[in-house]
Design a protein that fits this description.
281 residues; alpha/beta; nine-stranded mixed sheet; 11 helices
Length: 281
């Protein structure tokens, strides 16, 4: 059951914020949806956006400037929260890169996180909920994201290719097994088994592919003035894995751009157009 929290006219369409009780999470969850103007009986292509560390369901909709381009292409935009809220687990708010606001889009197996930190299952639940409750075309759904959410977009697309027809990312954590953010999250949520970590590492997942999972291509944009590039992101690892798998990849590196939403908004039109082309009927 969806509870409408707020609704706003936006570029001829509607920006909505919803709350619902999640069975996967066991708590109330919030998400945002932009619905462009459309015929009442029409099913629309939809694009999930997964946000990065510390963000909420509001961040993308407020900062990215994406609704203008989604309205032009007739795309729905869906932005879930980045973690459970209100679990009140010991230490869940002690750090900005683990716990609240940092669910890493996986299902935790370690206690006390395993009960509520089930973001991969939640995304599947949310997808099914939206197919029932909103005018989403099941066969035309894509996914993209930023940083931790870029990691999520790549791994969710690779782990669930039947859910998503297109995928792109801004400055993704492309090889989390190699970086401090990923190692901290994986150890905390998944324990010490690195084989389990590899199941949620985009570069490791791509390296195991025997053919291109997205033959129409993957788009990644990366700023070269990003202070996290060298230590945390490793786009070159994903680039190498795509080359081995024969996966078409457009990895664009941009001088002067950093890790934030000034960067994201600068190339948002390109990403919306990329997905719109691949989600055509």
């Amino acid at each position: 059951m969806l509870e409408l929290v707020s609704e706003h006219a936006c570029f001829g369409g509607t920006q909505r914020f919803y709350q619902h009780e999640s069975q996967a999470i066991g708590l109330a969850m919030r998400f945002a949806v932009f619905i462009p103007q459309h015929a009442e009986t029409a099913k629309l292509p939809a694009l999930f956006y997964l946000a990065g560390l510390t963000c909420t369901e509001e961040t993308f909709m407020i900062k990215a400037g994406a609704q203008r381009y989604a309205a032009e292409h007739g795309l729905m935009l869906i932005a879930p929260d980045t973690s459970p809220r209100g679990a009140n687990l010991p230490g869940d708010s002690d750090a900005w890169d683990f716990g609240v606001g940092a669910g890493f889009y996986l299902d935790a197996t370690e206690q006390p996180w395993a009960k509520h930190y089930r973001m991969e299952s939640y995304l599947g639940e949310l997808r099914e909920l939206l197919l029932r409750e909103l005018p989403v075309d099941e066969k035309r759904v894509g996914i993209f994201g930023h940083s931790m959410g870029g990691h999520g977009a790549l791994t969710m697309a690779l782990r669930h290719p039947d859910w998503f027809r297109s995928v792109s990312a801004f400055a993704p954590i492309a090889a989390p097994m190699r970086c401090p953010w990923g190692q901290k999250a994986f150890k905390g949520y998944l324990g010490e088994d690195r084989a389990r970590w590899a199941e949620h590492d985009a570069s490791a997942l791509m390296a195991k592919q025997d053919k291109a999972p997205f033959p129409a291509g993957i788009l990644i944009d990366q700023g070269l003035a990003d202070k996290f590039l060298a230590e945390q992101l490793y786009p070159e690892a994903f680039e190498e894995a795509c080359a081995r798998a024969g996966q078409p990849l457009t990895l664009r590196r941009h001088l002067g751009y950093d890790h934030g939403y000034y960067f994201i908004s600068s190339f948002m039109a390109d990403h919306i157009a990329f997905h719109a082309e691949r989600l055509k009927a």
